[in-house]
Queue: 2 jobs
Job 1
Amino acid sequence: MAKLRYAEALNQALCEEMERDPAVWLLGEDIGVYGGVFKVTRDLMERFGEERVRDTPISEQALTAMTVSAAMTGTRPVLEIMYADFLPLTVDALANQASIYNYIWAGQVELPFVLRTQGGGGAGAGAQHSKSLDAFVAHIPGLKVVAPASPADAKGLLKAAIRDPHPVIFLEHKLLYNMRGEVPDGEHVAEIGRAAVLREGRDVSVFATSRMVHEALKAAEALSAEGIEAEIVDLRTLRPLDLSAIVASVEKTNHAVVVNEGWTFCGYGAELSATIMDHAFDALDAPVERVGTLDMPIPYSEPLEMAVLPDAGRIAQACRRAVA
Amino acid sequence: MRNAPSVDDQLEMFRKMVVVRHMEETLGELHKAGKTRGPIHRCDGQEAVGVGATAMLADTDYITSTHRGHAHYIGKGLDPYRVVAEILGRETGYCEGRAGHMIVADAAKGMIGGNAIVGAGIPAATGMACSIRLTGRDAVAMCLFGDGAAQTGICHESMNIASLWKLPVIFLLEHNQYGLTVHSSRQSSVEDLSVRAEGYGMPGVLIDGNDAVAVYGAVAEAVARAKRGEGPTLIEAKTYRFDGFSTSDMGGYQPDGEIAEWRARDPIPRLRAALEGHIGEERLSAVEAEAHKEVDDAFAQALADPLPGFAGHPASRPYSEVS
């Protein structure tokens, strides 16, 4: 087991899958010669050649649509969309093409492709480079949506995504790329659709994804000092959802807080909150609390940006409200 | 591969064009009788493009189509009965009634999709050409698209990438003059869209789309070029749809005389006349009668076929919650 950065773990997953399966290839802006603006694809072009690691023009619409059809015709493409904010450019290929074909064509085709992108705020990247559009893609039936929070999951879930016969939207976070953690060597494939309980607790369940998992863990430390024991559940996969893990945790703590970096209105937290009420209403002693980014464009200046993003403080407050 | 179709090839193109025409006419009648669902987009008058462009392709070659794809389906070798059954929403259709007439696919025939999003087939074929290249197969991908799709941004993106990467793809522009009800002259800054090829560094070829033999020849040359690794070709086939945009079309936007003028250039009698000297009227009549019977039988059978029952499909299972 080696200690790797999140970006290095992703790189290792890509490298191992390309070595294992010649049908795997990569495309995206700046991923080849430069190795990716977040260095996730570093050295892969040198290793696998320009045909399998394609630098592309700035043409997100065409690239995503090409990825869909390349997946239907015998290859396993992994597309990098540089920022999640650019996902709106890819929506036709996702909502009208990739997500429908397996069902509409009665199983005649599989679509083994991965769209990797990174989102989230906190880096001062401004309103067009900081969004979390998780709900945008999780809304569409026919897509799987994965959001790893640790280097080990980054590797394990990316390997699983590449091997999956269905389209997977793989959401990374710009503030996690430098995070270090133990990553199993070699064949480490995680299961898509399984949540993980990262901290056991008896008083309130916090369901979080991506960077918010770490804010939730920080909140749990603070709450513990006050005598509130929060259970922290990393969903890891937004769709399909690990319903049994969610229900089991709520039945244990009788209180639920959902945390997602997306906007709250019509957001992923709203879906999660409704799902908990659909499946575990009788176990709830209080309404589900939602924590997300304030409903407004993400501003640039640091104090402004920090004010709109969810953090450990807001998560802890929500937990206190839940158990009050 | 020959650049000119043999007499047998031409007779087969003629037969398929008659199948498509009779299918379109029957669909028009069924729509009037209230026996179809949703809009049906007929391609009467455009059969020479779809049939001529696919005549030399193998099952291992891919095509992507449009919302007006009946000639492309039949040209690529799909079974008229299963196409008709899909259009009528039957369990026996190519997609078990899930797709309807605009999005039909038969993966085994390399027909991976009609597409009801205008322009979406263009990057799709480009991506298929990437697969062909990466896996080292001797095949091509072709997108059939209209003059409306030629105005989309995704068309520009795809042509640039295809030419940049020298992909084995053929862009076959089926120029029928109208994007829904708006004439091409009110949508495009140039009259001949094939001139745009120069901007992408690929050949642009302008042909008479109502001449199946001309379509065959131009496409055969583009296929050979693609297979030599020289990259894509843009072929613009000028044609016309006799019928409205769809069965919901109220008409009134085509100038007087325009339809009559194009009807005089109907691709089916035109190929028939060319073939008469080679094989005689009697055989042509027999081929026509057989084609009509095949289509009539297809509709009779499909109309008698069961409608699908709704049930969970294996294809939708991966998206449900983990239990």
Job 2
Amino acid sequence: MATNISGLDTLQDIRKMMEKSSRFISLSGWSGMAAGTCALIGAAVGRHRIMTYYEREFGQPGQCDDCLKTDLISMAAVVFLSALFSALLFTYLRSKKDGVAIWGPTSRRLLWNTVIPMGIGAIFIARLLQQHQYDLVPAASLVFYGLALLNGSRYTLGEVQWLGYAEIVTGLVCLWLPGSGIYFWAFGFGVLHIVYGFSMWWKYERKEMDKS
Amino acid sequence: MKNPIEHLNRIFDSRIRLGIMSALMVNESVNFNDLKELISVTDGNLASHLKTLEENNYVKVSKGFIGRKTNTTYSVTKNGEKAFKLHLEALEKMIRSIY
């Protein structure tokens, strides 16, 4: 065993082991596409809700401001949960195919490092809502989400960092155009996720399908 | 001609030991069960290879507990890091000499 060790194989083993032990590489491209689709549907429904609210305002003064707010927040929650669920589902399927445990040290580290900035962002946004600073909510959610991705990218596919940068830039631009928050939301959480998911699928999973 | 593989380290010839070293190089520390899962070997096999690495002062062991369960974690020593890097350089040289 020891004498005819092939150098190239050995190097490949080393690289595989280093990657496998430090990064969670079973993130599926489908996850991104599914999450993006959820976000686009959510944005369309949300936009409809806002439009009907403002149309009615002409005729009927004294509408329920808080109803619109609760409606939009619960819509956002539904979108977030369904996106998270579909992302987990596709990643679970992929990790099963790869034979990697979804709940290992690498995924734990990935989760922890994305949850911290996201949690801080959630507290920040909750405070914004309390102070009725709704204009800043879309920008803040995009920026904090981008930071979370950037932080997590060290523990998973490196390309996640580009998605992170794109989300941050979208969020920052949104700061100066607060009135069109829902469109930035749709672009950041919808379009960017779909583009990212598709390119990851193209790069990593398409070839695997050819092989099998 | 100089022998291109003179710096190859015999200790790292085993795939299991190679796997252990690779995983430890990029992580601060890894516990026994995670190593076992990564390399997919049996307890006894992994333990004996870890012992060899430990005896050569390439790997540090620290025993601890999570609740009542033992949690043994391994990390690479300065010495081990140096030896593994030398081994990698030797491998690189060997491959370059082929192509």
